[in-house]
Design goal:
Keywords: Membrane, Transmembrane, Transmembrane helix. The protein has about 525 residues and is an all-alpha fold. It has 23 helices and two strands. The longest helix has about 35 residues.
């Protein structure tokens, strides 16, 4: 235990120093990949971590996400990076976890419990014959009261502005005094950077030092993929008994299986008829010979939002009725058939959503939201497919979480390989003769689009869908305003690029700098 604890604490210290060096006043790019390689190497070297095939798979996925940050450097790649990092860390210290959602939750729990994990590991450290355990035993008499005082001070500050004012003054004086002391002894050290180092130390320790309680992993191990018929019996947990005091025994009054079947039968027949009417209207008016009229944009936008919500609700309704013993009811075949029919109709509804979004893109071009609708439609198809398997094969809700979690994670990494900002700009600018592009929107996209915008300056002023502040201007003034915005963006990029160091390097910034001649000496 001594060697293991010393190894983790030394790795945490090195990680804190590395974090401070890589990220202080830098953009997220190559530095994320370097930090991830350090975390992965430390995790695989850690004798407490089993180097299983599952861990290597999640490690490879995270390394891919870190590489995509360097290549594409978009918000989506950052999301992929953080999710894959949490999944990797969660699996590393809880390798019996089977769902990506629980592994992420385990990693977050590990980060939240950093102080407890750090203290637990520090108490096992020995320097020669000297043990740190008595020191931390004494320290807890100080830390716990301070924590309680901080919590109640925050509550009282929220309740009273006058109290909050005095607390703020006191903290300012204490902070200034502390800064003066540090500056007196360490004149060349930056107080803000010391705080940043402490933050990096805490973050690294949260990612490397495991949470000692494995209750989350144990709870997930009890979950199964296959539904089992539950026999009648009384739940006697303390939490259940506590709730029963306030509910008057309502928790025991479950619907009879036959009654639930009749309710489900009526519900699914009604919902099928209702959706059949909507799908018939969509097929006859939207699928064939649709001609936009009136407030076309608003009509498509509101219709798409409503359909998205209805598809989510549809999956929840099916999951509710087929959550338990109704799956084993002798007459459930009819209900199952109606549920399948409703799923098919919801797939038709998804096609209607895709057609609406297609019209939107055809007349107004691509945006992140319109691409998001396409992605959501794909996720709905996958979701309905897994719900179908759940009902047909009598699977549990755990099966849905496990299966969809894996698929969503893979899709997230796949979508991160696409440079969406550049794709949107190229698509819209290549169709300025047929679509009303929003030039303000295109100019607001990330710096990686600047070369393509600069090459197509003549097309930028052709927009007929700009914001109200420029809509009343003449065509020439409008074009000049848009080009001025583009010039400001280019100047801002040049300033930022010159200030960034090598740890902020990424392929997209490098390509943009090459285009504007910033890399040439």
């Amino acid at each position: 235990m001594k060697n293991k604890s010393n190894f983790l604490l030394l790795a945490t210290l090195l990680g804190g120093l590395l974090f401070n060096f890589l990220f202080w006043k830098e953009r997220l790019a190559l530095n994320l990949m370097i930090y991830s390689i350090f975390l992965m190497m430390t995790t695989f070297i850690n004798p407490e971590v089993i180097n299983s095939a599952k861990l290597k798979m999640y490690g490879s996925a995270h390394l891919l996400a870190a590489l995509l940050v360097v290549i594409n450097n978009s918000d989506l790649t950052l999301v992929s990076y953080y999710i894959s990092l949490l999944a990797f860390i969660g699996i590393a210290h809880n390798q019996q976890i089977r769902t990506i959602f629980v592994s992420i939750l385990a990693a977050l729990l590990q980060l939240v419990t950093v102080p407890f994990n750090a203290i637990k590991n520090l108490t096992t450290v020995r320097i020669g014959n000297l043990s740190l355990k008595p020191l931390f035993k004494l320290l807890k008499y100080i830390l716990i009261p301070i924590t309680i005082i901080i919590i109640f001070t925050s509550l009282y500050s929220a309740a009273s502005q006058v109290f909050a004012h005095y607390v703020s003054l006191m903290l300012t004086h204490v902070g200034n005094a502390l800064a003066e002391v540090i500056n007196f002894f360490f004149k060349d050290l930056d107080f803000a950077r010391i705080i940043y180092f402490c933050f990096g130390l805490l973050l690294t320790s949260g990612l490397l030092i495991p949470f000692f309680d494995k209750s989350l992993q144990k709870a997930e191990l009890k979950c199964t993929e296959q539904l089992v018929r539950l026999r009648k019996g009384k739940t006697t947990t303390a939490w259940f008994e506590f709730l029963e005091i306030f509910t008057g025994g309502l928790l025991h009054r479950k619907l009879a299986l036959k009654t639930e079947y009749i309710i489900g039968l009526i519900s699914f027949i009604s919902l099928n008829l209702l959706l059949l009417l909507l799908n018939t209207i969509d097929v006859t008016t939207l699928w064939f010979g649709y001609k936009p009229s009136g407030n076309f944009s608003s009509e498509l936008h509101q219709g798409t939002n409503s359909l998205i919500f209805s598809i989510l609700m549809a999956m929840l309704v099916i999951i509710y009725f087929f959550r338990g013993n109704l799956n084993f009811f002798s007459k459930s075949k009819t209900l199952r058939t109606l549920a399948f029919a409703w799923m098919v109709q919801n797939c038709i509804l998804i096609i209607s959503v895709l057609i609406r979004d297609g019209y939107y893109i055809e007349f107004h071009g691509l945006t992140h939201k319109r691409i998001g609708v396409l992605v959501f439609a794909l996720l709905c198809i996958i979701g309905l497919s897994t719900v179908y398997i759940k009902v047909a094969k009598q699977k549990t809700l755990f099966y849905l979480f496990q299966t969809n979690g894996k698929i969503w994670f893979i899709l997230l990494l796949m979508f991160s390989t696409v440079n969406w900002d550049v794709f949107i700009v190229k698509y819209n600018l290549s169709r300025t003769d047929s679509i009303a592009i929003d030039a303000d929107y295109l100019i607001s996209l990330s710096d990686k689009t600047l070369p393509f915008l600069d090459k197509n300056r003549a097309k930028i002023g052709q927009s007929t869908n700009n914001k109200s502040e420029t809509r009343t201007a003449t065509y020439s003034n409008l074009q000049q305003t848009l080009l001025q915005k583009l010039d400001v963006r280019i100047d801002f990029f040049e300033e930022r690029y010159k200030e960034a160091s090598w740890v902020s390097w990424n392929v997209q910034d490098w390509n943009t700098a090459e285009y504007f001649g910033l890399n040439r000496k």
